[in-house]
């Protein structure tokens, strides 16, 4: 089969599909990943064909607060819709859609008669088990959670409505809003695969058949890749350091966060590896090393704890490595994943980004790195996750579509 995977957003919204795509390719399929242009190297490194989509502007990646997040998302969706009509070619047999691209991709699938499959990184379907992942962590009760979940879907429909109308016009399709298209898909009981671990989020008890949690799709890492020599030397030169990084969050706050991180490390008496990321963290010293992009799969098993923004992918990577976390959620679904890690005992209580101080970080670091309970809980979760085969289960579903 010729499979096109369409994913958009930040790096964490795209990178997992490089691992999924590589697995589909090993199974004998031809795989194209359509994603924003900055991620072309990630896709090609995995041996996959790349097709460009509009990128989220840098200023929007750092948006914090619900209103700012909605404004930036609306602008991004508009541009994404304008670049979406050219995602597929005539030879495409299957369109695999992320949660970010599904509201657009299902119209492209309709216009071309191409089968589509949802492949989402976070739980989007309403459930009584927990509230929507983007609205916070306080349960509203089973009825309230489901009601809030349906409301969240309606808000997403409104966000995509202008882009959908424009896209359907370009494709020569009659008017149909995103809400009606979504309800049509639900009525057809279309399959949606969820790429997260049931160790973190058990499959909700009230989800319909066809909504399947398959496990985490890990970003592709070349089997021959090794850590940079400078980082390897630092890791072996003393006790295990802690990792501190905020991914695509906190743009423009590098100087403040770097000073805060170094002070916290010194208060806790720990060595540290700072990942520059979008924030631009940077520090020098005998006990601190700054690195750029490094595969979490190679680095996290070598550290004592991980301080991170609690994105879905980074949260899963820390858990997979059996390493305690200090979650510092910034926005969107990050408080949800931070709370899940803490509930497992594999993380300290979350420290909201807006409340982060050197004192609070030092205290959390000391507990994460030295309290054996967090390490034991993380190790237990890692053993459970090791038995998951998300790519294998996905390949089974994809190949079942041919029958």
UniProtKB/TrEMBL annotation:
Domain of life of the organism encoding this protein: Bacteria
TM region(s), chain numbering: none
Keywords per UniProt: Transferase
Record GO biological process: carbohydrate metabolic process; vancomycin biosynthetic process
Domain Glycosyltransferase family 28 N-terminal: from-to ranges: 3-61
Keyword Transferase annotated: yes
Gene Ontology molecular function, alphabetical: hexosyltransferase activity; UDP-glycosyltransferase activity
CDD domains per the UniProt record, alphabetical: GT1_Gtf-like
Residue ranges of domain Erythromycin biosynthesis protein CIII-like C-terminal in the record: 279-388
Name of the protein: Glycosyl transferase
Organism of this sequence: Streptomyces spiralis
């Amino acid at each position: 089969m010729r499979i096109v995977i369409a994913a958009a957003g930040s790096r964490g919204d795209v990178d997992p599909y490089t691992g999924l795509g590589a697995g589909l390719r090993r199974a004998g399929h031809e795989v194209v990943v359509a994603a924003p242009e900055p991620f072309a190297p990630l896709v090609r490194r995995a041996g996959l064909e790349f097709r460009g989509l509009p990128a989220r502007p840098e200023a929007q990646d750092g948006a914090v607060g619900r209103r700012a997040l909605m404004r930036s998302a609306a602008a991004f969706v508009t541009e994404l819709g304008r670049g979406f009509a050219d995602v597929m070619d005539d030879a495409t047999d299957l369109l695999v859609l992320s949660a970010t691209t599904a509201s657009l991709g299902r119209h492209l699938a309709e216009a071309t008669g191409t089968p589509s499959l949802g492949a989402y990184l976070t739980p989007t379907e309403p459930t009584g088990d927990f509230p929507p992942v983007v609205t916070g962590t306080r349960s509203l009760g089973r009825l309230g959670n489901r009601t809030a979940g349906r409301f969240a879907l309606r808000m997403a429909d409104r966000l995509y409505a202008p882009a959908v109308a424009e896209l359907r016009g370009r494709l020569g399709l009659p008017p149909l809003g995103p809400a009606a298209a979504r309800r049509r898909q639900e009525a057809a009981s279309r399959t949606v695969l969820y790429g997260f671990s049931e160790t973190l989020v058990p499959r909700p008890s009230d989800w319909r058949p066809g909504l399947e949690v398959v496990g985490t799709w890990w970003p592709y890492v070349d089997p021959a890749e090794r850590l940079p020599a400078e980082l390897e030397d630092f890791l072996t030169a003393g006790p295990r350091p802690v990792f501190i990084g905020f991914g695509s969050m906190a743009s423009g706050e590098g100087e403040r966060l770097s000073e805060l991180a170094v002070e916290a490390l010194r208060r806790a008496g720990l060595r540290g590896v700072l990942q520059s990321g979008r924030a631009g963290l940077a520090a020098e010293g005998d006990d601190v090393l700054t690195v750029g992009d490094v595969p979490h799969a190679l680095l996290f098993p070598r550290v004592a704890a991980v301080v991170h923004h609690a994105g879905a992918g980074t949260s899963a990577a820390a858990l997979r490595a059996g390493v305690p976390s200090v979650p510092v959620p910034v926005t969107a679904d990050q408080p949800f994943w931070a709370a899940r890690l803490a509930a497992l005992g594999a993380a300290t209580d979350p420290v909201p980004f807006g409340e982060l101080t050197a004192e609070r970080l030092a205290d959390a670091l000391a507990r994460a790195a030295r309290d054996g309970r967090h390490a034991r809980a993380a190790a237990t979760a890692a053993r459970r996750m090791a038995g998951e085969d998300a790519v294998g289960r996905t390949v089974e579903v994809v190949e079942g579509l041919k029958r």
